[in-house]
Amino acid sequence: NFKINRESAYSYTDQQETYVNGVMSNSPSCQLFYLYQEMVSAPLMKGLMYDLKTLPEFDFTEEKWNQTVVELMSIGNGIWGMSPENEPRGGVFFNKRMLKEAGISEDEPYDLQKDGKWTWSKFEEYCKKLTVDADGDGKTDQYALASFSKYYLPMCAANNNATFVSRDKDGNYQNATGTKEFLEAMNWGMSLMDKGYIMPKPDGAAWDWYKAAFRDGEVAMQTAEVYEISAFASMEDEWGFVMFPYNEKNKDATNKTTPNDNIVVMPSCFSAEEAEKIAFAYDLYTEPTPGYDLDDAWKQTYYDQFKDDRAVDETLTMMHEADHIQTSYLPLISDLDYGDFCYAVYAGATTPAKKIEAISSKWDSKISDMNKKYANFAASHSK
After folding, report:
1. Whole domain around residue 29: which residue ranges?
2. pLDDT, tens digit, 9 for 90 and up, residues 185-200
3. Tell me: the pLDDT tens digits for 135-170?
4. Do 211 and 134 lie in a common domain?
5. Which of 193, 229, 243, 279 is deepest in the core (most CB within 10 A)?
6. Minimal CA–CA distance to 79: which of 88, 89, 66, 98?
7. Predicted TM-score (pTM) above 0.90
8. Following DSSP, what letter does each residue of 78-130 receive, concatenated?
């Protein structure tokens, strides 16, 4: 017999320190920890995570396990982290009233997405219609879009089959900002700013000002993560949610999202007997509720949070499909952040091409260092 307690035991800023100190002192506060992806690499390199592949209670080929996380955390002959959750992430929220006023049916974004026609060119058409100078004074009264730079620009990349950091077949990480697809995506994304479709950050506004801009009807659309829906709880207008549009001129591109699921890890200080008991309990804990298949289970969480079922049945369902997922490897590289590129570019302080050149040496060096650390770790944990 056992009882499982799931609790918030630490904040974002102190989660890594809490984990490392607890494991190194052989007194972790929990048997399993949820860590953000960017908090994983440092304790992993210190040998502070248990190799879950050695535990017979876990079968990571089972449908319930997040295969993106399994791939991320497969190093050497081991698997060092897991997740039973597949959290849908970045897409485009849209205000149904504002679309109607622009002559766009509230169902059209869903229909275009369903037919594979939710593209960059169609999105740009929307942006033009939804950017309004109501009184003809030459000043924009309604913008098409407002977003956080670290949500918007990575979505532009993913939907042109580009990324910030890639991983090759040998497991080596690479700086992928130098590809033509990446530059093309960044230039397209910033062209919408140059054309006046994207609302600029108001002077003196907080970093998350864009949430209120969409909630209050100042902008018609927003690129954001699914968890941002809590910011729209008091929104009067009805809204929908679709995936980010893709570049139809790139034959390898399609609508994609980039998951960033938290990773469940087990402290390495447990004995084999203790680890097997923990694994036995957690494996049972993560089994689907009898009478519900996996689709039913995760969808129920979202039906009450979204304004219409199509967002869940179509958009979020697509976000669970492998063809519409792009794995992000950037969080596994210590001291790299999307903001290194996105902040200055989105603010108009520099061009994408200049920023790519400016960060290339630093990023190449940090990625090279991490490759060496991962290679040493893999070599010492391979049989």
Report:
1. 15-87+260-287
2. 999 999 999 999 999 9
3. 889 899 999 999 999 999 999 999 999 999 999 988
4. yes
5. 243
6. 66
7. yes
8. EE--B-S------EEEEEHHHHHHTT--TTHHHHHHHTT--BHHHHHHHHHHH
